[in-house]
Every structure is written in structure tokens, then in C-alpha cells.
Amino acid sequence: MDNSNAKHWDNDHFLHPWEGMATLGKNDRTFIEGASGIHVVNEKGERLIDGPGGMWCT
Q1: CA 38-40-42 angle, 5° bins
Q2: DSSP string, 2-49
Q3: Under a CB-based contact definition with an 8 Å cutoff, are residues 1 and 33 in contact?
Q4: Mean pLDDT by 10 residues, the chain (58 residues)
Q5: Phi and psi dihedrals of 6, rounded to 5?
Q6: What is the model's pLDDT at position 56?
Q7: How many Å apart are CA 44 and CA 46, to the nearest integer?
């Protein structure tokens, strides 16, 4: 899946709370394409632990 258009749209239309104003609209952030339990899978197929997910939910 090619997320290049979604990344451009995200940079143009969203302010993420963890970003500094100096990098606003210039980030090449990771896009999550799947999840299972505590793990998420990014666009490269890498399986990662979703550590900060719980922090943002509580």
C-alpha cells in the first residue's frame, strides 16, 4: 500500500500534539496499517509494541 498521498494530506491538515511548531507539515511519520493485542504493524510490515497508545487513552 502506498501511503505517500495520505502522508501529504496528514501534514497539510493535522496538528499532532507531540509535534513542535518548527516541524509542522514536514514530518515523515510512521503509518500504522494493522494491530493485534499490544502490537501494531507499520507500512513496512514491522511489528512494534504500542507503548504510547495507553498513555493517550488514559
Answers
A1: 165
A2: --HHHHHHHHHH---TT--GGGTT------EEEEETTEEEETT--EEE
A3: yes
A4: 73 82 81 89 92 70
A5: -65, -35
A6: 67
A7: 6
